[in-house]
């Protein structure tokens, strides 16, 4: 059994439990409950930061354009953005599809959850500041430019499903070698591995905290692989990260959802 931190709908506090991946069972307060019977809430509490162009394939796709206007050279530091609170939803929640949009990009991302305030940390000590890992779908409206903040494309309501839990750091032997799978309606649409990161997790944490502090509870997304698959209304999306968990959501038309969610 693997130790996890989770939150259930209707509960104010976070809870500690265990997960048996093979049997699909969660242990909470001595009870053994199948995963599909639990009403998971969002397991994150701090700010969620995304990272652009940290997968080798994604970087190569745009490498030529990096030498053109407006910057004329490749980035020297991590390119970050924020997934604000309105984007966060839980596993099994509905992803709203805006009325004027036909498809959304499913951004499979490993979320690194910070356990201790981190400022100007060394790469070889980076994991001392990590609490654990979660699965995140960094949803976005398809767009080409990475030279301006894609707020309209990435910060819509419900555009950051996360969960269903946070796996504690010690349970993941090597987060820099995790298989990532994206299934849409049960069909495998994308496969990648965190070994393809340009900045491995320790390096990424060191480079980010060189210019900004990450606080306990914050989550840093390590990046999105190239060729993010597209999904549309009524599609069921599952993102699986080896040893971390499975995040499931369904896309529904925003106009048919009460209050937009």
TrEMBL record:
UniProt cross-references to SUPFAM superfamilies, sorted A to Z: FAH
* Source organism of this protein record: Virgibacillus profundi
What keywords would UniProt list here? Answer: Isomerase, Metal-binding
Asked whether the UniProt record includes Isomerase among its keywords, one would answer: yes
Give the protein's recorded name: 4-hydroxyphenylacetate isomerase
**Metal-binding listed as a keyword:** yes
Pfam families listed in its UniProt record: FAA_hydrolase (PF01557)
InterPro entries assigned to the protein according to its UniProt record, in alphabetical order:
Fumarylacetoacetase-like_C (IPR011234), Fumarylacetoacetase_C_sf (IPR036663), HPA_isomer/decarb_N (IPR012686)
Q: Which GO terms of the molecular function aspect are on file?
A: 5-carboxymethyl-2-hydroxymuconate delta-isomerase activity; 5-oxopent-3-ene-1,2,5-tricarboxylate decarboxylase activity; metal ion binding
Ranges where the Fumarylacetoacetase-like C-terminal domain occurs: 47-251
According to the lineage, what is the superkingdom?
Answer: Bacteria
């Amino acid at each position: 059994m693997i130790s996890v931190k989770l939150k259930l709908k209707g509960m104010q506090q976070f809870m500690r439990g265990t997960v048996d991946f093979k049997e699909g069972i969660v242990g909470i307060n001595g009870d053994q409950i199948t995963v599909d019977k639990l009403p998971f809430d969002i397991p994150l509490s701090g700010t969620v930061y995304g990272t652009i162009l940290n997968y080798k394939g994604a970087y190569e796709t745009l490498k030529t354009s990096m030498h053109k206007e407006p910057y004329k050279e490749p980035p020297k530091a991590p390119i970050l953005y924020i997934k604000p609170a309105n984007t966060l939803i839980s596993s099994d929640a509905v992803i709203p599809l805006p009325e004027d949009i036909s498809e959304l990009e499913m951004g499979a991302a490993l979320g690194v959850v910070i356990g201790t305030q981190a400022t100007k940390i060394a790469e070889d000590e980076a994991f001392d500041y990590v609490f654990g890992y979660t699965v995140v779908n960094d949803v976005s409206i398809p767009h080409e430019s990475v030279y301006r903040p894609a707020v309209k494309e990435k910060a819509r309501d419900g555009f950051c499903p996360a969960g269903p839990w946070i796996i504690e750091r010690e349970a993941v032997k090597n987060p820099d070698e995790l298989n990532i799978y994206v299934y849409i309606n049960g069909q495998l649409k994308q496969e990648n591995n965190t070994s393809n990161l340009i900045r491995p997790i320790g390096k990424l944490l060191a480079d980010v905290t060189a210019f900004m502090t990450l606080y306990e509870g914050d989550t840093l997304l390590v990046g999105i692989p190239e060729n993010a698959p597209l999904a549309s209304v009524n599609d069921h999306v599952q993102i699986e990260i080896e040893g971390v968990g499975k995040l499931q959501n369904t896309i529904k038309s925003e106009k048919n959802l009460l209050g937009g969610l």
